Q: What sequence folds into this?
């Protein structure tokens, strides 16, 4: 995340986090994940949050879409339910549900939650190898094109940072 060293000039300074600020929450949330899974989650978060600058979708501005990996409102609500329980989330609007999971202790764990809750075990196995095929399968699970040049650039930087040869 090349721009994650500062929040200077961020459009939403209250949402922006530096890599240094995010690191403890990421370390805790991904302690049981492999290097390849963590690299993929960080690549996704980096791209989707513009290097940790946003916790909600500002373009095209889908209300309730967000967290570091910009989950759709339905997934945000499901993630909030997994943390707080159905009764606490049931009558919340998408924006209210998002507000529940954007505090740092939950925000940075959302990509890992999605990976474990919505991707087939084979996706995690592929990511453990650090392979491009694992990345492509993960992006398919997320519902985006893993061959998009911007996504590939984030993935390649993450592979390099984690010394993955895939």
A:
């Amino acid at each position: 995340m090349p721009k994650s060293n500062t929040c200077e000039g961020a459009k939403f300074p209250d949402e922006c986090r530096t890599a240094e600020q995010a690191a403890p929450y990421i370390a805790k949330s991904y302690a049981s994940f492999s290097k390849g899974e963590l690299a993929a989650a960080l690549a996704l978060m980096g791209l989707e949050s513009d290097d940790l600058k946003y916790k909600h979708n500002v373009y095209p501005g889908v209300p309730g879409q967000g967290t570091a990996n910009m989950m759709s409102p339905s997934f945000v609500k499901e993630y909030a339910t997994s943390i707080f329980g159905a009764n606490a989330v049931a009558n919340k609007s998408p924006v209210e549900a998002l507000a529940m999971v954007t505090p740092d202790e939950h925000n940075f764990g959302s990509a890992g939650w999605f990976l474990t809750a919505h991707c087939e075990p084979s996706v995690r196995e592929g990511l453990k190898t650090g392979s491009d095929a694992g990345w492509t399968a993960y992006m398919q699970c997320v519902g985006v094109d893993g061959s998009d040049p911007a996504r590939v650039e984030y993935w390649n930087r993450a592979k390099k940072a984690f010394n993955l040869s895939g």
Summary: Residues 19-161 form a domain with the Lysozyme fold (CATH 1.10.530.10).
